[in-house]
Every structure is written in structure tokens, then in C-alpha cells.
Batch of 2 targets.
Target 1
Amino acid sequence: MAGSRRSRAKPLAERRRLTATVLAWLAVSVPAGAAGAQGGPLIVGDAIPASLTGQKGDAAKGRAIVTNRQVGLCLLCHNGPFPEERFQGNLAPDLNGVADRYSEGQLRLRIVDPSRINAQTIMPAYLKTEGLMRVARPFEGKPILSAEQIEDVVAFLLTLRGETK
Ligand code: HEC
């Protein structure tokens, strides 16, 4: 319908304010962590637009996290363009081309707290909450990552365009 289209680009001032809010929020506390974040400005739609650290992640470190069987455990469920990894999971979508399907912010939310997208998901929430708050019981003992590691993983996932087997 004519005139009903809304611009998707947010004004710069609003984006700056959002980033500032997120950083302030992270500095103060993470309420019950990713497992029980109370909405707030961090999550916008189905995404976390701003970097958790204010920095870009390191894609090479991110790849190491994703393929690590102790740290990321991603390949327990996922497969992807990792020819050196013999055993990869088939419980979850192939990570090939994932950057074609999701924006940076959407990928970030899917690592921080996938239950925001699918309440029944088997994928763990990865944002480390240790030292800030108790981790909700269902997440105890699950693999968790620091904000910096999550940014590294996001940076790596953003390199997965096309079918890069
Ligand atoms: C216990 C299994 C499991 C583990 C471990 C896991 N995931 Fe997932 N992941 C899933 C499932 C299942 C989905 C499909 C959506 C859903 O059910 O939530 C998913 C969805 C995703 C998506 C969206 C993909 C798409 O095409 O829709 C991304 C990106 C992702 N995972 C990345 C990761 C990364 C990176 C790691 C490791 C840090 C990881 N996952 C660890 C099970 C897992």
C-alpha cells in the first residue's frame, strides 16, 4: 500500500544511543545472564545489533572455537566447511552459507541465547554469566563463552557465505 512503507534504517543518533545503552547495561550487570535476560534494549527484533564488546571479533579465533570439542562444541550438532573435522553433527542446520541467511545481529542473538528464537531449542545459550549472576539451572554445565569469544564466533560465521565446502 502506498505510503505504508517504513524506513528500516535507524537514525544514527538512535543507533549511537542504543550502543551506549547496551554498553552501560553490560557494564552494570547481566540480569540472570543470557538465560533470562529481561528484554531490554539489547535485543532488537530477533537480533543483537551491537557488538557485545564494542569491538569486531577475530574470525580465525572464532573458527578455532567453533571446531573445538571442549570450548564451542558446535560440531556436536552442526556441520560446516571444516574438511579436517571427521565427525560433525547432523542435529542442526549446516553452517555453510549461514551469513547469507542471517545478519550479524541475528547471528549474535542465535549464539547468545537461541531460546529467544525457539523456546524448545536444544542449542545452549553461550553468553557467559559467571561472576555476574547465578546461571539458570538448565544451563548449568553447558558450554559457555565470554563476550569476546562470542564476537570471534560471530566474526567467523560472517565469513560463511555461499557453499564453501
Ligand atoms: C546441542 C546442539 C547444538 C549445539 C552444541 C550448537 N547448536 Fe547451533 N543450533 C542447534 C539447532 C538445533 C539449531 C536450529 C534452530 C533451533 O532449533 O534452535 C541451531 C541453530 C544455529 C544457528 C542458526 C542456523 C540456521 O541456519 O538457522 C547458528 C548460526 C548456530 N546454531 C550456531 C552455533 C554455534 C556457532 C555453535 C557453537 C558455539 C552452536 N550453534 C552450537 C543446535 C546446536
Target 2
Amino acid sequence: MAGVFLAMMPTSSSVPGPTRGAAALTDGVDAPVPASDTPAALVTLADLEADPHPALARLQAAAPVSWVPALGAWLVTGYDLAVEVLRDARTYTVDDPRFSTAKVVGPSMLSLDGAQHARHRGPFNRVFRRDGVHTRLASFTRAETGRLVSAIEPRGAAELRRTVAGPLAVAVMAEALGLGRADPIRVLAWYDGIVAAVQAAAAAAQPVGTAGTAAFSELAASLREVIAVPGSASVLSDATGPLTEVEVISNAAVMMFGGIETTEGMIANALLHLLSSPAQLELVLAERGLVPAAIEESLRLEPAAAVVDRYATRDAWLGGASVRAGDQVTVSITGANRDPAVFAEPDLFDVRRPNAGRHLAFAHGPHFCLGAHLARLEAEVAIGTLLSRLPRLRLDRRYPSAPRGLVFRKPPDLRVRWTGRPLRVDAPRPGNLDHTANTGGGAMSEQDDFAERFHRDRREHAGASQRLDDDQLARLTEEERVAAGLDAYDPDEVPPATDTPPQPEDITQTEEWQEERAELLREADKGEIRPVDERHPFPPTRYE
Ligand code: HEM
């Protein structure tokens, strides 16, 4: 199991946590390792990675918590028990030496519980509230989304994870932390370096490698510069005081992990759900106010972070299972979010589902996702902008787009098409359709360049297949498309080239943007900011 867990989540070591052959219990008595034909014994990591939903439904029907040998952990799939575990940090803690993130970035809110957790998280609660993120980051998020969409708009086809969702998540996180001037590729390289180190530490229970240490040191040096500037706009600015500089940096690193891959997945999954469900898409297109509800429903149906791990601090009964001190207890957010006792017809994507907001995609209890409002803002802006600016946006059926992943779930590729107006650019020679080659004759814009480098630099895509990429597809002439074995030219799919490129919209000049900004400023002036009850700093989700 280890090694597949990415940095942000509590991570198990390669030696399964529990030291015994625990098993689901009946009548409160220790049972032997489950019989080989039970759903728990049959579930495999491959099932959980590819399409976990049928296996989780079988597990849930048998028991809300079961010992899963493939995971070396108790797997909680029932909603009520998931909430129980996530609320009870005294019994089910993240503070365990098996949690490898702390080995790389040091102790942070993600790896601590109790008073220490409150001390690490407290200084950030206010800036991450809804009003806080909207005041600080809404206009940046809109402008950046506008820029990213402008770069692809003329092409008529794109892979949206690497051209919009991923770069947006990186840019917003860099801006939030005050690293706005840093090259996004450097930010991503730090992220990748630290994630790789955490994975290696988890997989082999080894000390952190030098590459991971170097990546973290570079990030730390840049953050130190940000912290040194008094009154900076960074979300870190209020934290020095209650926390030491080292602690602020550890928590900033955790925010970066939390804010990149998950948000990219959240946006990609929501787009996938909408574009695969024509009737639901129609509802949203007719009533744009449904975008936030569609995002909540998508978070329920396919949470970008599928599981979180806890470690039992004492022997405990959990839904009829006898958990022993030291056992790993993994909460399947994916499973809980489809518990039929809470969500009727749980496999359906229904943007009008009345209780979608009860999903656990951002966890629950003391570790409720700090960045939930920021992630929602990014997703709402990204999806709203894409639906508004790319007419007849639809999945490119030639490429599969099902979500995958054991911990972080998202489609490996999200290729779409729309009725756009591609720029006239020199076409590549049909024989030179290499995935990584820069075949375009036209000069690459800065944005193209970023998307290209982003794509290339993602470690996980190092071995990506040699398919045509978006630039190449958009640049092909009709004859070349046919010669390359692609579908015949359809004037509706890729309209004729034009010499007049559309002008990117300056979103800050739109009436809507100006009005919204004025409204936010008025609210801030009047002090209409929802009070925070420090004893209950985790607000219920919006649709409860
Ligand atoms: C701007 C984006 C985001 C930021 C800055 C962020 C940051 C964080 C931080 C700092 C924590 C630790 C909170 C604590 O331990 O007290 C956290 C927890 C968590 N986040 Fe986020 N996050 C973001 C987006 C997301 C998204 C999109 C998802 C999933 C859809 C997600 C899922 C979670 C979950 C499940 C936890 C709980 C982990 C646990 O309980 O072990 N986050 N997030």
C-alpha cells in the first residue's frame, strides 16, 4: 500500500501497520483472518485503484468496517462510522511515526492532534474562511483562469487537466502563499521533489533522500523571504508570532501539497461528471447558479482524496469490530460518500441532490480541509469560465477519461472539444507527430510554453503515451487529420481557421467583476464577516 499514498495524506509504511491478523468480528469476538471468499478478503489494490465503487459497495453491504488484508488496515466504508472516526482524534490519531509526511516537512497541522494541532492550525483559520479567500484570492483566480482559458480558446480541443486545472491550482497556491513571483515550474518542482521523498520514505521506510531535502530547503528559503516582508499579502503573514518560522514553513508546505493535486482532481472530476451527463449539463447551462451544487455533487460522487488514514491509540469497538491499539484505520471517503443510508441512489450524479453537501470529501472534524473554500472558489471559477467561454464543450470520445487512483482520484487525461475558432498556424509534417516534439510553426506564447512545460515536467506523465497533443491536433489541416488516421473533418468540430485571433478578455474590466469587487469591499468595510466560534472552527458545508 505504501508508496501509492501521496504526501498530503497520513501515510502507512510498507510494513502493514497492524501487527496482527485482525478480522471483522461477529458478536464482538475476535474472528480469524476473513474467509477467502468474503468481500473484504477478495478486494485488491487494483480494484481500488481502477474502479473502487463496486468493491466498496460490496464491503459496505457486508459491514460498515472490515479488515482488508490488501490494505493491512481496517477500512471504514459506512458514513456514520467514518464521521465517528474522523471526529474522535483521541482514539484515531494522525500523530503516528508511520505518517511519513512529517519526516520530510516536519510536524504540521496535518500530522498533529489535540492542543498541538489547534496551535498549528489556529493562525490560518481566519484567512481560509470563505470571506477571507474571496477577498484575497477571487480576483486573482478569475484573472488567472481567464488567462489559461484564453490560451486554449482558439484551438477547439484541449486536455483540460494540464492546460487549465493543474496550472490554475499551482498559480493560486503560489499566490496564496506569497510566492506569486516564483516560476510556477519551480513551485511544481518543489512539490514533486517533496512528494517523491515522502513516497520513498513511506515505501521503503528509509530516511528522506537528498533530492527531497533539497526541494524542501529551496521552498523553505523562498517562504522565509515571504515571511520576512512585513504586512505581506501571503496567508502566512498572520502566523508568525503564534508559530515559529520553522513551523510556519512546515504548514505552508502542507498547504501546498493539499492545494495542488487535490484541486486539480476536483476540477477535472467535476468537469468529467458534467460532460458525461448531458441532462445534468443542460440543467447547469440553463441555470448557472447550479455550478456550486454540481461541484458538491461531484465531490460526493468521486472525492479527489479517496481515503485518509488514522492510527488507533487504544483498543476500541468500532461498529462491531475490535480495533486494537496501533491498528491502522483507513476511512474510505469514497465509500462513505455513496452510503445508501445517507444518499439515495448513491451512484447517480444529480446536481439537484438535496443533501450532496453532507459529503465527506473535505473530511470532517478537527482535520476538516483548511482549503475547502479556496478549492471551491477555484472549481467554481474554472468550471463557470470554461462553460461560458467554450461553446458546446464536450468530451473527446476518442480518449478514455475514467478517474483512477488509490488515494488521489482523477482522470489521467481530460480531453475535450468545443466549437472554437482555431488560429491559423503552420501545420506539422504528418510524419512528425511525436508527443513531446514542439512541432508548431507559430511562435509559442508564454502561456503555451507554460502548459507545455507543465505537461512535460509532471513526473507521473514521464512515460505518457505518444498520442497527439492538443497543440498538434489543433494545428492539423483537414488532409493531415485524415492522413494521420483521425476522424474526417467536421466543420462543426473544428471550424475553419481565421486570421483574426480572438482578443483575450481582460476580466478585471468586465462589469460583473467590478460589481463583485465593489460588493466585497463594501461587505469588508461594514464588518459583515461571519464570526468564528473558536470552539467550532470547522463550519458545516454550505448545503447542510
Ligand atoms: C486550495 C486547496 C486546498 C488547500 C490549501 C488544502 C489544505 C489542506 C490542509 C492544510 C489540510 C490539513 C488540515 C488539518 O490537518 O487540520 C487539509 C486537509 C484535507 N484536505 Fe485539503 N486543501 C485543499 C484542497 C483540497 C481538496 C480539493 C480536497 C478534496 C477534494 C481536499 C481534501 C482534504 C482532506 C480529505 C483533508 C483531511 C486529511 C485528513 O484528515 O487526514 N483538500 N487540506
